[in-house]
Model the fold of this input.
Amino acid sequence: MKQKICKANYRAKPFEGCSETKYIFRYGLCQKCFGKWVHSTEAGGEYLKKVTIPKAKQMVKTEVDKKTREENINLMTANQYRARYLQDVINDIVRTIDKGQKCICNPNVIPSDAGHFLSVKSNGHIACNLHNIHFQSRNSNSFKGGEDLKYYKGIIRKYGQEYADFCERLRQSKARHAKIDYIEAFSKAKEFRIILKKKDLTYTAQHRIELRNQANEFIGLYETEFAKFNI
Done:
């Protein structure tokens, strides 16, 4: 940045500036003169009201919001953090892996949800295992209570009996997670999602299982025997 003569432009007139060669801050004025203009002139006061004060308030608000979020996280249980932060990212990974697929329960219906095979209510410890989550229609996932039998048959139809049996066994996982585990997993899940979304591909059944294996292993919440299905 070149030094120039400190001389007010039309925005700061009739304020003159110091006429010295300095680095220009704003409106043709050096930083010292700009501060004088802001605090000593009517136009500067208007600038302060319209620009500086709102920016300062926004910065304060951002800091307050950040502190509030951190305080809220500190008050959350592990499961509350999982549901509020991690689950959305996990579900988005599932929707990306299953892009172009029909509802796991109803093969003629276009899905929108990442629905759990083994319910979160009864099997919360595997809520983030990607083998337990597949693309499902909103109607099937919400209004019809998950349609367990159709879901199971859908897994068989798409991936075979052996994989369906593997999904049934996920409930046997002994993994239990502290909040710090979910916090670390949240960071890893976001990283995996970025990589996956950049590819923006449609995958075969075998590749969808492989990607679930990779995601589970990368995120690191589950034992190998429940994180990875051997194709």
About this structure: The chain has nine helices and six strands. The first strand starts at residue 4 and ends at 5. The first helix runs from residue 31 to 40.
